[in-house]
Amino acid sequence: MNAASYRDCEAWRAEGLPLSTSSNEACKLYDAVLTQYVKWKTDETVGGFEGSISALKAADPNFVMGHVISTGLDLMGTGISVRLDKRLADDVKQTVELANTQVLSPRERLHVKAMELFSRGNFTKATDIWEDILCEHPTDMLALKFSHDAYFYIGAQNQLRDSVARVLPYWKPHMPLSSYLKGMYSFGLMETRFYDQALKVAMEGLALTPGDSWAVHSVAHVFEMRAEVDKGLKFLESREKDWQVSDILASHNYWHWALYFLEKGEYEAALEIFDSQIFSRCKASGSMLDTVDASSLLYRLEMEGVCVKDRWRELLQITQPHTDDHVTIFNDVHFLMTSLGAKESATSQRLLKGLQELSKEPKENYQHKLAGSVGVSMCEAMVEYDQGNYNQAVELLYPLRYKIVNIGGSDAQRDIFNQLLIHAAMKSENKHHQKLGRCLLLERDAVRPGSPLTNRLMQKALALH
After folding, report:
1. Are residues 284 and 431 in the same domain?
2. CATH number, domain containing residue 109
3. Among 95, 119, 152, where does a domain finish?
4. What is the Cα 39 distance to its own chain's centre?
5. Which residues contact 23 (CB under 8 A, 6 or more apart)?
6. Angle subtended at Cα 152 by Cα 286 and Cα 98, rounded to the nearest 5 degrees
7. Which of 10, 184, 363, 373 has the greatest number of beta carbons closer than 10 A?
């Protein structure tokens, strides 16, 4: 293995982030795992994530931060549930027990605590603790990345931005991974609709690191939110060689590419990207990000009247095993799109019932609490829409409009629910709903002037009523 360029015990100490292990190898491998996480890119010289994590544990089995990063990444992936996966639950327990038998720094203790809270679904308390770490240690990249992802999962848009803004001045250009903060900050700016600034900061990041796929992704979002479709297409295409090597995020950037085609009404081009990039990568990785993107793209195509029947059945093979997970509402609603699309009603009902049950006694789990206020009704609305009960779908979805942000994801990802509400309102027999549909389209046009998709829907509304 080649971990030469990564930081050893002394290097971490010099940065004011000492790690409680005497193994240089363990320190370097910790850095290797962290670096892959920040770059969204597996490093084959250290055996990718799996290879570097197992080598890390072998180098020092009692290295607490090694356990924190590996278990934390499993949790952040949201693809396995502590409720159902004994190995993951044991990993959390083992990390906590290990920490209790050692002399650790206060920073490391807080990391253990935050990871444990996150594992119990208490995302908001976990982010508070990561912020406590960052207040004392603003260059702790693991605390920054974990909080960034957790804010994303709870739709905390301002925090996504401010968390990076608070620490940015402490990062100096010579520090490893410092340029990647630009992409992270840009994404927070973009989600809070500072589009010009988001674009500027992302381009600064890309000038330093052309392969920063998260900064590329932030720019793709800006063009998506402004409906500057041709600019977006040109941008992604011109930099494809740089970002497609970030294997963990590439599929998501291809998803943005497909959305531009969808916006233009070029369905064949969108399907071509789905088949050649998104679905093939999703099948290979099984990652939740790739899976929700695949579901979302097919659902949007279907709303536009494109037949994607066979693709739903294939995608169901990937989503069905996750029916009982209920790690995030965001994942759940996307799994439901697939089971509805594949006409697998038993799976759809099972997902909905499971969510209803968990919402009754959510304990400290943020997502299960959210199921009661938002998640269950969203799922019910999708089921009603699928059955042609458009009136019911509107009645369920309309009151949730400004709460849907809490399920996490980005504005671009959540836009699917704006579209669903508009389609339901237009198809409803209720005259008031039809007027509501037109109002929502005018609102959409004000937010994204010149959107071809909005114009198509307006034409459709005029033709229908």
Report:
1. yes
2. 1.25.40
3. 152
4. 15
5. 9, 59, 60, 63
6. 75
7. 184
pLDDT, tens only, 388-403: 999 999 999 999 999 9
DSSP string, 259-324: HHHHHHT-HHHHHHHIIIIIHHHHHHH--HHHHHHHHHHHHHHHHTT---HHHHHHHHHHHGGGTT
User: Which residue, 150, 152, 141, 130, is CA-closest to 180?
Assistant: 141
Rounded to the nearest integer, the mean pLDDT of the chain is: 97
Nearest-angstrom CA–CA distance, 364 and 186: 31
pLDDT tens digits for range 89-132: 999 999 999 999 999 999 999 999 999 999 999 999 999 999 99
Q: Which residues contact 359 (CB under 8 A, 6 or more apart)?
A: 368, 369, 371, 372, 375, 376
Residue 38 has what pLDDT?
A: 98
- Lookup result for tokens 């088949």: 275
What are the tens digits of pLDDT across the range 56-84?
A: 999 999 999 999 999 999 999 999 999 99
How long a stretch of residues is the chain? 465
Q: Looking at the 3D structure of the chain, how many domains does it have? A: 2
Supply the pLDDT for residue 465: 80
Tell me which residue range forms the domain holding 411.
279-465
In a domain, 250, yes or no: no
Where a domain ends, among 96, 122, 152? 152
Longest dimension (CA), the chain: 73
381 part of a folded domain: yes
CA–CA distances in Å: residue 23 to residues 30, 59, 453 = 11, 7, 56
Residues 6+ apart with CB under 8 A from 257: 220, 232, 233, 236, 237, 273
Q: Which of 277, 308, 259 is nearest to 416 (CA)?
A: 259
Closest CA to 303 of 449, 417, 462: 417
DSSP conformation letters of 147-162: HHHHHHHTT-HHHHHH
Alpha helix (H) ranges present in 81-210?
Answer: 86-100, 106-119, 123-136, 141-153, 157-167, 180-191, 195-208
Quickly list DSSP for 383-406. Answer: HHHHTT-HHHHHHHHGGGTTTGGG
